[in-house]
Design goal:
Elements lengths: L21 E15 L6 H12 L3 E7 L2 H12 L7 E3 L9 E7 L3 E10 L4 E9 L11 E8 L6 H18 L8 E6 L8 H8 L5 E2 L39 E6 H5 L4 E3 L5 E2 L22 H10 L5 E9 L10 E6 L7 H4 L1 E5 L6 E2 L4 E3 L5 E3 L5 E2 L4 E5 L14 E2 L9 E7 L6 E8 L12 E3 L13 E3 L29 E8 L6 E2 L2 E2 L34 E12 L10 E10 L4 E2 L8 E4 L4 E7 L6 E2 L5 E3 L2 E5 L15 E4 L2 E3 L13 H11 L18 H11 L9
Parallel strand pairs: 1-2, 7-8, 20-21, 26-36
Antiparallel strand pairs: 1-13, 2-4, 3-4, 5-6, 6-7, 8-10, 9-10, 11-13, 12-13, 14-15, 14-24, 15-20, 16-19, 17-18, 17-22, 22-23, 24-25, 26-32, 27-28, 29-30, 29-33, 30-31, 33-34, 35-36, 37-38
C-alpha cells in the first residue's frame, strides 16, 4: 500500500511547566446525529437539552446532512441561554453523510483541518490548540480529532470495508511526525473487538490507540450492556433503527500520550461512557421502565428523540496556564439618525459589532456624545462573538419602524446633522469606540435610511468615506416598506463577517493534455513549495508540503478570486484572495493540504470571478460570476469556448469539445512571443526536471516544446483584465 507523506508545517513547540501551570477539565463528546436536520422536527431543541446538561467543550458529530444543519446546531443548540463561545469547523461536503467539529472557542482555536477520502465517506481531521498564556511564548497543546463513520453491516465484506477505511486513517496519521493527543472516534459500526479494523486501530501503527472501555463481543451481550449505544428505540420513527440497546457502535479511542498525560493532556480514568445508558435497557428503548435514576427525565427523553444512537463522552485534564483575556473591542457599524417612516423619537438606533472571539456584556457601559447626552446601560446586554447588538430609543416594534431593538436607552439622542456616538467601559473614561458623523460634509446624510460602515474590521470607522447610505430595507426589519437599513446583521455592503466557502474548478493545460486528461510526468519533480513567489506573480503565500501527496497531481497553479458586480469591473482592483493549489490530471483544482476543493474565508459582495495562473500557460478568467450552490462556487473552463473571458482568444480547443489554457508563456508575462523562446526556452534547452521552458511538461526541454506548443501559439495573449 502506498503511503503519502503530507504534514502541516507546525512550529516546534516546547511546553514550559512550572509553578504557574494549572489544571483545566475538558468534556469531549462523539455523537451520531441521525441525518440531522432531516427527520422529526425540533431535534435541535433535543440537542440543546442534552448539551445544556453536559456542557461539552468539544463535540464531534456524524451524519450531518449539510452546512445548514451545522449552523442550526451552532445557533439553536449550542450558543443559547447566554452562551456564545461555541464555534465550528469548515463544513466539508462528502459523497455521503458528513462530519463536523464544534468547540468551545474560549478554550480552543481551530488550527487546521484535513479530509481523508475513503470512497464511502470522508474521515475528517480537525487540529485544535489550547488557548493559554503560553501562546505568548510560542507554546501550546495540540489535539488531533478524527471523526469517522465506518461502513455498516455484519458481513465479511463489511468488515473488510471498515478495515480499508481504517487503513486510510493509518496512512494519514502515521505519517504525521508532530501529531500528539490523538482521538479517533465516531460511529465505527464494530460488532466485536476481534474485527481487523479494531485490531488495526489499537494494536498497530506509529500511534496505537487505546480503548478506555472493555474489549469483547459487544453485540447483544448482557456483559457489555453498559456500553451499548444503538438503538435507543424499539419502534421506528424519524428514520432511525429500532431493536433497543444491543450494539456498541460508537467509540472514543485515544493515543498513548493521552493515556499517560505525556503531552500535558490526560484522560480522566473512568470518565468514558455511553451517555444515557444505565445498564438496565438491554434490548429496550431508552424510555422503557425502569426509569434511569442517574439523569433528569428531560435529558432521557431528549436522547431518545434526538437520535437512534447515544453519544459517547470522556473527560480530559489539561495542564496549562489560564487563557488570556479576550480584548474588549467593539465597532459602531450602522446608524439610523434620521428615520422618515416614523418619528425620530421612536425610530433612532445604532448597531454595534463584536469582532472578537468572545461575547462582551455591556452591562454598566456608557453611551454618550461630546455634549450632554449620556446613558449607562443598566442590564445584561451581550454582544455575541462575531455578532451584533442594536440599541435604540424605542423597543416597541409597533412604533419604532418594525426592527428588533436589543436595548432601549434614554437620555441619548442622535442629531440629524452632526453628532457623536462614544462607547465607554464601566469605569466611565476608557473609550472603546467613537464615531463623529458630520451631517454631510464627508459622511452620508440620509433621511429614511441608515448609514452603513462598509470597510473591514481593521479599518477606521470614524472616517466618513468608509460609510454609505443603506440602499434597501433588509430582512431584519419586519415588513417590506419603510426606512432602509439592516439593524442587527451584516447587511448588503457591510464587510464585517467573512464567508466560508469552497471552489470547485476544472481547467486543463494544453502542454500536458493527452486525449482526455493531463500527463503527470513532472510529478516526481514538482517543488514542495508553491512556485509563484517570483516575478510576475510575486505571491508570497505559505502553501508547502513535505511530499507530493498524490501521483495524480500534474502541477501547481495559482488561484485568484475577484469580486465585482459585472465582468467590466473584474480587474486587478477587485482581487479579494489568492491561493496556490494543486492541479490534478483530471483538471480539478485540489487544496494542497486536504486534496479536496480549495476553501476560502472572505466576504463576497457581488459576483465571484476566478483567475487561474500557471507558470508557462496563459492565464484564464471565468467569463461570468461563478455558480454557487450550498457554499461551493463552481466553474468548468474545459467545456466550451465561452467559459473563459475572451472566448476563443482566451483559451484553446485541444480536442473537439475540450478547451485548455494556452501553452508557451514561459516568462509568465501574459504573452506568447519571441521572449519565451529566446529568453526561456533557449537557455534551458537540454535540461531535465521542473523547467519553465518545458512547455509540454514531459520533464525535458527540447524541440518538442518549441515545435508542438510555442510555435502554434506565438502571438497569443491572455484575455484576463489587469
Amino acid at each position: 500500500m502506498r503511503s503519502y507523506l503530507l504534514v502541516f508545517l507546525f512550529p516546534v513547540l516546547f511546553f514550559s511547566a512550572g509553578a504557574n501551570a494549572q489544571k483545566d477539565t475538558v468534556l469531549v463528546l462523539y455523537y451520531n446525529l441521525l441525518s440531522f436536520p432531516e427527520g422529526d422536527p425540533g431535534r435541535e431543541a433535543r440537542l440543546r437539552t442534552i448539551n445544556s446538561y453536559l456542557q461539552a467543550d468539544i463535540l464531534v458529530v456524524n451524519e450531518l446532512v449539510d452546512n445548514e444543519g451545522a449552523n442550526i446546531i451552532l445557533s439553536q443548540s449550542l450558543n443559547v441561554y447566554g452562551a456564545d463561545h461555541y464555534s465550528k469547523a469548515l463544513f466539508t461536503n462528502g459523497p455521503d453523510s458528513d462530519n463536523m467539529l464544534f468547540y468551545n472557542s474560549s478554550k480552543f482555536t481551530l488550527y487546521s483541518q484535513y479530509i481523508i477520502q475513503t470512497g464511502l465517506r470522508y474521515i475528517n481531521e480537525y487540529v485544535l490548540y489550547y488557548n493559554s498564556t503560553d501562546l505568548a511564548l510560542g507554546d501550546t497543546i495540540f489535539l488531533y480529532f478524527y471523526s469517522a463513520h465506518l461502513k455498516a453491516g455484519s458481513q465479511p465484506p463489511d468488515e473488510q470495508q471498515r478495515l480499508y477505511e481504517v487503513r486510510k486513517f493509518r496512512e494519514r496519521v502515521d505519517n504525521l511526525p508532530t501529531a500528539e493527543n490523538i482521538f479517533f472516534g465516531g460511529d465505527l459500526n464494530l460488532y466485536y473487538s476481534g474485527e481487523p479494523a479494531y485490531d488495526t486501530l489499537v494494536n498497530y501503527g506509529v500511534y496505537a490507540l487505546n480503548d478506555p472501555l472493555p474489549a469483547g463481543n459487544w453485540h447483544n451481550s448482557y456483559t457489555y450492556r453498559l456500553y451499548h449505544t444503538q438503538s435507543t428505540r424499539t419502534s421506528v420513527f424519524g428514520g432511525g433503527a429500532d431493536g433497543g440497546l444491543d450494539d456498541r457502535f460508537d467509540f472514543i479511542l485515544f493515543s498513548d500520550d493521552v493515556a499517560s498525560g505525556a503531552n500535558k493532556m490526560k484522560y480522566m480514568p473512568g470518565s468514558c461512557m455511553a451517555f444515557g445508558n444505565d445498564g438496565n435497557h438491554l434490548n429496550k428503548a431508552l424510555v422503557d421502565p425502569p426509569v434511569n435514576p442517574n439523569l433528569p427525565d428531560s435529558v432521557v427523553q431528549a436522547l431518545y428523540l434526538m437520535s437512534d444512537h447515544l453519544p459517547v463522552i470522556c473527560r480530559l485534564e489539561i495542564e496549562a496556564n489560564n487563557q488570556p483575556p479576550v480584548p474588549e473591542r467593539l465597532i459602531i457599524a450602522e446608524i439610523m439618525q434620521n428615520p422618515n417612516n416614523v418619528f425620530d423619537s421612536d425610530g433612532e438606533w445604532f448597531e454595534i459589532f463584536n469582532p472578537t472571539g468572545q461575547g462582551i456584556d455591556l452591562n454598566g457601559w456608557y453611551i454618550k456624545d461630546n455634549d450632554y447626552d449620556i446613558h449607562q446601560i443598566n442590564t445584561t446586554l451581550v454582544v455575541p462573538a462575531g455578532g451584533f447588538a442594536t440599541l435604540g430609543n424605542n423597543a416597541d416594534t409597533a412604533v419604532n419602524g418594525n426592527y428588533q431593538c436589543d436595548y432601549q436607552y434614554i437620555n441619548f439622542y442622535l442629531s440629524n446633522g452632526a453628532d457623536e456616538i462614544i462607547l465607554l467601559k464601566p469605569d466611565g473614561y476608557t473609550e472603546v469606540d467613537r464615531v463623529e458623523y458630520d451631517g454631510g460634509v464627508t459622511w452620508p446624510d440620509p433621511t429614511g435610511a441608515s448609514m452603513i460602515f462598509i470597510a473591514g474590521v481593521d479599518e477606521d470607522n470614524n472616517i466618513g468615506q468608509n460609510w454609505i447610505t443603506a440602499q434597501e430595507r433588509e430582512l431584519t426589519f419586519s415588513g417590506t416598506s419603510g426606512d432602509k437599513g439592516s439593524p442587527g446583521t451584516n447587511g448588503n455592503g457591510q464587510n464585517l463577517l467573512l464567508e466560508e466557502f469552497m471552489i470547485q474548478v476544472r481547467v486543463f493545460l494544453e502542454g500536458p493534455f493527452q486525449i482526455s486528461a493531463m500527463s503527470t510526468a513532472l510529478n516526481p519533480d514538482l517543488p514542495l513549495t508553491q512556485p509563484f513567489s517570483v516575478n510576475p506573480w510575486n505571491y508570497n503565500g505559505p502553501e508547502a508540503v513535505t511530499g507530493i501527496p498524490s501521483l495524480d497531481i500534474t502541477d501547481w497553479v495559482l488561484i485568484e478570486l475577484r469580486d465585482a458586480p459585472d465582468i467590466s469591473l473584474a480587474d486587478s482592483g477587485s482581487v479579494i484572495a489568492r491561493k496556490a493549489s494543486f492541479l490534478n490530471k483530471d483538471g480539478y483544482l485540489a487544496d494542497h493540504q486536504s486534496l479536496g476543493n480549495p476553501f476560502f474565508i472572505e466576504n463576497i459582495k457581488d459576483s465571484l470571478y476566478i483567475v487561474v495562473y500557471h507558470r508557462n500557460h496563459l492565464a484564464v478568467m471565468s467569463s461570468s460570476g461563478m455558480i454557487e450552490i450550498a457554499g461551493v462556487y463552481s466553474w468548468d473552463f474545459t467545456v466550451g469556448s465561452g467559459k473563459a473571458t475572451g472566448g476563443v482568444l482566451g483559451h484553446k480547443e485541444v480536442v473537439q469539445g475540450i478547451w485548455a489554457m494556452t501553452g508557451g508563456d514561459g516568462d509568465g508575462n501574459g504573452q506568447t512571443n519571441n521572449g519565451d523562446k529566446n529568453d526561456v526556452w533557449v537557455p534551458q534547452a537540454g535540461l531535465d526536471g521542473y523547467q519553465s521552458g518545458d512547455f509540454n511538461m514531459d520533464g525535458q526541454v527540447n524541440n518538442g516544446d518549441k515545435i508542438e506548443v510555442w510555435e502554434y501559439n506565438t502571438g497569443s495573449g491572455t484575455q484576463v483584465p489587469y
